[in-house]
User: Fold these one by one.
Assistant:
Number 1:
Amino acid sequence: MNDFNFYSPTEFVFGRGRENECGKYVRKYGGTKVLLHYGGQSAKRSGLLDRVKASLEKNGIAYCELGGVQPNPRDTLVYKGISLARAEGVDFILAVGGGSVIDSSKAIAMGVPYDGDFWDFYSGKRAEKALPVGTVLTIAAAGSEGSGDSVITKEDGMLKRGTGSDVLRPRFSVMAPELTQTLPPFQTACGAADIMAHVFERYFTNTREVEITDRLCEAVLMTMLKETPRVIADPDNYEARANIMWAGTVAHTNVVGVGREQDWNSHGIEHELSALYDCAHGAGLAVIMPAWMEFVYKHDVMRFCQMATRVFGCSMDFAAPENTALAGIKAFRSFLHSIGLPINFTELGAKEEDIPLLVEKFGLGGGRTGGFVKLSSEDVAEIYRIAARASL
């Protein structure tokens, strides 16, 4: 196991109706003037936004509002949020929504105290200072409610880029599982794929003797295999929703990734799909992740066999371990298909003829990237080709 520091300061406020307490937690963490940041109309129609406002008012917290966050959140709204927060004297950002809203809130939080362009932080600069952020989570998927990460799309060129810093970890996150019960099945499935991908990016590692985090990863994956079909069949299943919501947080706080080398190529490769086609991130991952696995599995066949046997219950073929590894990858792709997700370019709405553009936007040039297997531009192109033509 590698040496590591682990810092996870977020207070998780979990359970039924806990959104009614968010004002108390804003006050606890020093907020006096809040930027209330959210997405479309669902938070208004459901009454969630009114409940959040009532909680802020009850606790004497002033606020201003900025809605309009869309999936694959845009830099243009971030700039607007930074200007509004400065003009209003905001000292706390409260995100009401899913990963896109939280990521946009983090970007605003970095930009307010920064003299330069906030996009610097998505171009290699690391944030050292940010306004505090709190969240009221409505979608179990990105894990942004407990992580120090954020992903934003720059509209000029449609560049989707990420950043990370511990100063971006939310001070608190309100997690009321019933808020996810109105999600359409497809959004629920996309969230499940994102959660599983966050685990797999950590699970496939070259670091040896990491049994504790291996087992934690496998526990989260097996939970998703059990609970996702339950909520697809019964959207009002609170217990299944609760397990999935906490699985999403555990998957991306990095508690399952400490002490081990990680990969993250699949996320980078997918980001170009969702930037170009504006598809759901989880749907793109459902197409890319198994394709990446098929491309790299020979690098460590036994780790893929471990996934196949421990997570998906495949039988071990000791005479030909590669058969077991491929069976596990097939089982993963079949699961994604069974919950209604795309498994190839056609089903996603992507075009194979765009692969050169996707590779160009990925931006490797003559270099290589990744932790588990270092990929070249041609490797990335081949992964896209596998994804384009995939079938069960």
Number 2:
Amino acid sequence: MFPFDRLDRLEDLSALDKVAQPLSRAVDAAVRPQAVEDALHGTWLGHPLHTALVQLPIGSFLSATLLDLFGRDERSADLLAGIGLASSLPAAAAGATDWSKSNPSTQRVGLVHALLNTAGLALWTGSLVARRAGRRRAGTGWGLVGTAVLGASAALGGHLSYRDGLGANHEADIADTGPTDWTDIGGADVPEGKPVLRDAAGTPVLLVRTGESIEALANRCSHQAGPLHEGTLHDGCVTCPWHGSTFRMSTGAVVHGPSVHPQPALDVRRREGRLEVRLRA
């Protein structure tokens, strides 16, 4: 229980907000235009980009460490150290973009994660410099410590992903728990052009009427479960009030990140002055 207990306490350490909040705003200002932000989130991929990009630096640093300890191929170890440093830059950019669009408790853990990564990369930079200068024992030592620090940071990354759900689809369970049969959600009196929240047998549903057409999506944002019915409507889309994920009402498709996961869409029908919905096949 020790590591998890300490990490849970880290989420409550509001003193970190003094650094996290202005840094988050700086990242938001730097990641422009919107297309760049969406690309770094992985909206085009349908999967968080950061988790894919980090595999290369982690694998490179670990492989270099193993060659340092058990192998005799110094040239390959040095090459892998350089690859690890170079590939860390795009991974960090994607990670910072995701981090800037997360909840305060998640940002606190993410800030420590970023600081550990920075320390680990600084150690590996020192390692590569020592290697190039012919000081192999120093280079090996710096690299070994750097790998240990990055390993601790990776534990925080796992906490962010699996405990805090950063990058996870927060509506993934709807396919199993949502209404697969027509389910009554109340009267058909839905005001035009305004988001309306209804309940479909325990599944919160967002309704939007345009003319005679009523469209419905699962209400919790797939990014971090924000309430879409409190969001804004524009050009057939709804934007989450928490972090700005934008979805097309007709299909649930992601228009802009940080979400990379589509919203579950529901079919709507009128029956005897009532509305019924069911998950779209």
Number 3:
Amino acid sequence: MMRALWTAASGMIGQQFKIDTTANNLANVNTTGFKKSRVDFQDLLYQTDKHAGTPVTAGSQVPTGIQVGHGVRTVATQKLFTQGTYQQTDNDYDLVIEGDGFFQVLLPDGGIRYTRDGAFKLDSDGRIVTSDGFPLEPEIRIDRDAREVSIGSDGTVSVMRPGDDRPQEIGRIELARFINPAGLKSAGSNLFEATAASGEPIIGIPGLDGFGDLAQGFLEMSNVQVVEEMVSMIVAQRAYETNSKAIQAADEMLQTANNLRR
């Protein structure tokens, strides 16, 4: 009877983790460039009381065995990198990646992080930076006398200066992509960190070799679908309740056994 208690308890722990993940998805429904997570479960070890195919008499064997499982565990939380919806902002420094790829961001310690959040700004030095002040890599610097900033679909950054009759190219935005983006580590602040599972970053030009195009004046919103997350939350809640009922039933059966009289 104790087996049922621990098995159902593992189910409650697993569903609690699913609720936690769903809550984080819903909390970031309006976070620019956010990618929702999915929880993957795996059943635990099985106790085998009789193996399938065990001989019983000459020429005959047991067609099915006897096994009982010991519950469930969480094995993965996978980021789903489906495209989010676009929001038009008409801000020159808002960028969206139409397809595969990540913006590269340089941290103060010299490390590189990756993001789909294209809500960039200018700092006091004219560098294009994130909301936390981390500059793009490679660095793009806008002159103080620049009047118009144009960012092409191939990442080319051009500006108009006083007295010029045509834009002048000052740099190019490069993107990174990964063989296994689901293996990236979420570092917070809309940033991802490369891991051994994600593979080394592949650097390229937007619009070429499988990289997505850039679009100026747009932002990619979260790919969280509120209705899907609400349904997922209801399913997890009912599964949690069902596992609690299993614990209650096991407890009542133990109580009945304890109350037996000769």
